[in-house]
Design goal:
The structure holds two protein chains of two kinds. Chain A is an alpha/beta fold. Chain A has 14 helices and 15 strands. In chain A, the strands form three sheets. In chain A, strands 3-4-5-2-1-6-12-8-13 form a nine-stranded mixed β-sheet, with helices on both faces. In chain A, a hairpin with a 7-residue loop joins strand 4 and strand 5. In chain A, helix 1 packs parallel to helix 13. By secondary structure, chain B is mainly alpha-helical. Among the domains of chain B are: 70 residues, Alpha Horseshoe (Leucine-rich Repeat Variant); 64 residues, no CATH class. In chain B, 69% of the residues lie in helices and 0% in strands. Chain B has 19 helices and no strands. Classes of the chains: A alpha/beta, B mainly alpha. The interface between A and B is large, with 56 and 51 residues. Chain A: Belongs to the glycosyltransferase 2 family. Chain A: GO terms for molecular function: glycosyltransferase activity. Chain A: Keywords: Glycosyltransferase, Membrane, Transferase, Transmembrane, Transmembrane helix. Chain A: This is Glycosyltransferase, catalytic subunit of cellulose synthase and poly-beta-1,6-N-acetylglucosamine synthase.
Amino acid sequence: MYSAILKYITDFYESAIFVYCAGLFLFYILLAVLSLVAIRRSLWKNKIRGQQMLVASPLTPGISVIAPAFNEGVTIIANVRSLLALNYPRFEVVIVNDGSKDDTLQKLVDEFELVEVNFAYRQQIPCQEVKRFFKSSNPAYSKLLVLDKVNGKSKADAVNAGINASSFDYFLNTDVDCILASDTLLKLIKPFMDDPQRVIATGAPLRAANSCDVEAGVITRVRVPKALLPRFQEMEYIRSYLLGKMGWTFINAVPNVSGGLGLFDKDIVIKSGGYDPGSFGEDMDMVVRMCRYMCENDLPYRIHYIPETLCWTEVPATYKVFFRQRVRWARGLAQIFSKHRKVLFNPKYKKLGLIIFPYNFFFELLAPLIEFAGIIYYIYIIVNHLINWDYAIILLVFIYTFSILITSLSMLWDQLIFRYYQSWKEVWQLCILSLAEPFIYHPIVLFSAIRGYFNQLTGKKHTWGNMQRQGFNQSSNLQKTT
Amino acid sequence: MNFMTSFRQWLEDLVYYFAYFPLVIQIAIIVSVLAVAGTAVAYIYMIFFRWQKERRAKKERPLREKVNELLLEHIIYKSLGDQDTAATLPLEVFETLPLQQKWAADVFKSQLLEYRNNFTGDIPLLLRQLYLELGLHRDAAAALRSGRRKKVINALVELSGMGVLLDNAYVLSLTQSRDQYIREMARCYWVQCSPDAPFAFFSHVQEPLLAWEQFELFRIISLRKDIPMPSFAQWIDFRYHPTVIVLCLKLAAYFQQPEAIPAMINLLKTDDEQLRAVTINNLGKLMALEAEPILVDMYPQQPDNCKLEILKALGRIGSGNFIGFLQQELEHTNDFLLMKHAAHSIVAHKALASSLVARLQESLTGTRKQLLQHSLNPLIKY
């Protein structure tokens, strides 16, 4: 009797897991197809609609580039110069010095000839107190505005201060240490202009800058990261942006616009309450709240992703920093589902409630738990000699080959369209890595997610720690060595 | 060796017993085989595609260099050096290129377009003439009537880039196409190339002109120097589509057409808040003195966006007749943005407001004073 019940349970469990996997794989295949269509459509639109006319047009909308800085003294000057050199006719750069303890602010003051000004500031969304405002006395840097604020212990708080001080209707949220392509603003504003519906946010892929050649804040040669961990992340970014986000763009169901690079409709961000400094996944939380606002007010909207990589960022190079980052991301996801639980399966929220949230719930939030349970189950049946090795191997091969197929397709899409890497060798370095990913990289991601959920459940205090940067392959002596 | 033998044996067993496996395992096997095949195809295609791209680039490079050389030698330098360049182009030189091959013709056309975009004066006209005399427009002309969406759009982009108008009546009909992209490209093409009636379609617009299309049309119109600009006031009328009116409002302001002011004032009656705000904005840009009292009269009943535009417009017009109104707004409104724009507009009156500014600096306190100082600071632009 006992064994019959046990057999029934195990059969049910195995079938359920298989159905779950099949569902996930179907979604991936669907996303792969949709992303290819979306990428091709985006490139075709670029071909027929040149963006250069925006540079000369008096109608081009203004953009505020908001970049918070915390203890960035080593690289701040090169990074701000890079932001000021963006190719766009009407923009301002708002640097938010978030209570840095190093010489970040002093360096800015000295280099850009900043003077304190009496700036009319209105706090529309909550943030810590802004103590001082600086503008440059040199007309060459008239686009620069520097805020000196009390540290808010989160990027969200600093961005909110930047939004409060910004002048234009659109703002770009980025990190001061990100390296942006010079046409970033031109490319990101385009979807706002050519969609009949109101576009509330656009994003573009990020890649690892770790081994790229950088000169005066500009990428001069894209390279695959040399170290293993950043290289895995590069592969993951390509898959996530080109296959995931572009696929979701096609059906207007983008779940998140990365905190590293996103152009937003300021009005909607403010009406949605701005970034939440208490959130561990403030970028996704912001997008969810914007979508909720639009749905609750019955306003049609779109969120776009464009396929070109416009931002290079230094990804964690040590396992400790990487693990901590992923724990925070997982915790942020759990927090979002706890905070916005009313959205799940709620038809009032349209695609957000019926596609984005269910997908993220089953295939992002639950996936690590199901996978972890699967590992425990495998161990149990091995220990108790209940395993059918032939079937077990077939099922593992099924998952392994499919994961490689998905990564290979994303690499193919990347190669068909952009070819950022100059040599074959670099492409192969990434392709080969997909074979090792399930054994080396994926377990770390899995266990960091479990740890993140555990921390969220137990309410453990999160320590932000330092993102220990290695610096880029700079030809100048501006390497960050913190 | 043993491992390979056992593995082969295992695979053979798998094939042999496949029909007897449970459905789940059968599906897993099929998906795995498809995944391996898909991965292999992806890699092969990647190799093939990269190789093909490199091969094409290698093939095109010498031709591109040759085309550049010929264009520079026979068109650009001659035109720059000799203002009275002969009307006859050295066609025989260009006919030595393998232009009968599609790839070569495409390379040549792309270079022509690039040079046309990067030069002004006679050079774009000479390049256009060369394009026509070499008969390169024939493919685009055929594509225009092909009925295939992408071909039609590519033809419109090419012909528009070369400034060649073909098949007038047909192109004009495309400006009403049901396909958004064909319609948009045809409109841009028509506005760019029509010699006598580039704005003919304005009266028939039924679908909204997207912001992008408005930008593009604005750019093309502002660059057309070969025709006298019509009075855009004729389209600033409730009979036309609101997006056409918005475009014409901007064009009237850009070309400084004061004759459009009465039509704009008439448009202030519209129920469409966005349209009203754009109208007020452009009245300001036209420095419409006669609109000032009307704007001030209507101010109390307006939504915030229109109020903001009225304050901005009063600052741009800067007659000084309503500086007291601006002062009142700065002193009494509780809305931060209205306060800010009232302060900006007072400061925009420059000498006319100097004594008022001095008084306000003495009398204002708190946010209002800060806003005035913000507006007075030349380092702060917005």
